Amino acid sequence: MKFDIQQIITATMILFAVVDVIGSLPVLLDLKQKVGIIDSGKVTLASGGIMIGFLFIGEPLLHLIGIDVRSFAIAGSFIIFFLALEMILGIRFYKDDSAATAAIVPIAFPLIAGTGTLTTLLSMRAAFEMSNLIVAILINLVFVYFVLKNIFRIEKILGPGGINILRKVFGIILLAIAVKLFTTNAGIILPK
């Protein structure tokens, strides 16, 4: 296990931007009104289990179907690119079929550990040490837990304008990450 502070900080920021728990505040507030109390601990543990589990079984699963991590990283860069466009432009490319698609843990799977997060994790495996990714996941889970525990307080502090500004800033960061992921991995795969 090799810990690298720079990798941990970078991976934490990437995951923070992709998980976008601050940008999900309006959705979380709406769900809280519908379902009542959100169990912050349960949601955080379920999200962590999904992310760490996929981090370990995602690559073997890809090899089973004949895809390498670098190709998956390029595919992931496209998903991150579109997520960034959604955040910056305020438009939706991906729409859920229904709210019942994740009945067991609706917040943990579709919102926190959704397809964008899982794709990003596998994409980052090509550039980061596994131990640093796990630390980055754990740091993000602490932040997710804090946000879920203090959801109404955060909304009052930031206000609608503050939430929108944060969403746009992290969208631009994600866009730059998508470009870097694509250029780094495409240069290795494509013939020169």
Number of strands: 0
Number of separate domains: 1
Mean pLDDT: 81
What percent strand? Answer: under 5%
Q: How would you describe this structure to a colleague?
A:
The protein has 192 residues and is mostly helical. It has one domain (7-185). 77% of the residues lie in helices and 0% in strands. It has eight helices and no strands. It is globular. It starts with a helix and ends with a helix. Mean pLDDT is 81; it is low at 96-105.
Secondary-structure topology with pairs:
Blueprint: H1 5-19, H2 25-35, H3 40-64, H4 69-89, H5 107-112, H6 115-124, H7 130-149, H8 151-189
Helix pairs in contact: 1-6, 1-7, 3-6, 3-7, 4-6, 4-8
Features:
mainly alpha; 8 helices; 77% helix; globular
Quickly describe the structure.
This protein has eight helices and no strands.
